[in-house]
Design brief:
This protein has about 110 residues and is mainly α. Helix 2 packs across helix 3. The termini are far apart.
Length: about 110
């Protein structure tokens, strides 16, 4: 049976979560250790707190790394335009600063 989160533990997370520009919690491992909880359990609780509005939700549009950042409308238009003009996945990936695996739907290259 799962250990129930106490009000004190929840308050600790609210008070001690170090948030990046994207609101992603950076110190999950340290908080898990302090709370004597597993990292997966702590990650799960933080996610639930974000969904419930007890912590700010993650804003991937502010991510520095393009891997998890959503496409902007401008990027969508450029991708569609390049695709219609016959550009390959690697060319599109390079042009948009993205990994070509994102465009795997275009061709069957690994």
């Amino acid at each position: 049976m799962a250990k129930v989160w106490t009000t004190k533990e929840i308050q600790y997370i609210k008070n001690n979560a170090l948030l990046a520009e994207t609101n992603q919690v950076l110190n999950i491992e340290q908080m898990a250790e302090k709370l004597a909880r597993s990292v997966p359990s702590t990650k799960s609780k933080i996610y639930k707190m974000q969904v419930d509005g007890d912590l700010p939700s993650i804003d991937r549009s502010k991510a520095f790394d393009a891997k998890n950042r959503p496409f902007t409308k401008r990027e969508d238009k450029r991708l569609i335009s390049m695709f219609k003009q016959g550009a390959g996945s690697e060319e599109i990936g390079v042009a948009l600063g993205r990994n070509k695996k994102i465009y795997h739907w275009k061709d069957n290259s690994p």
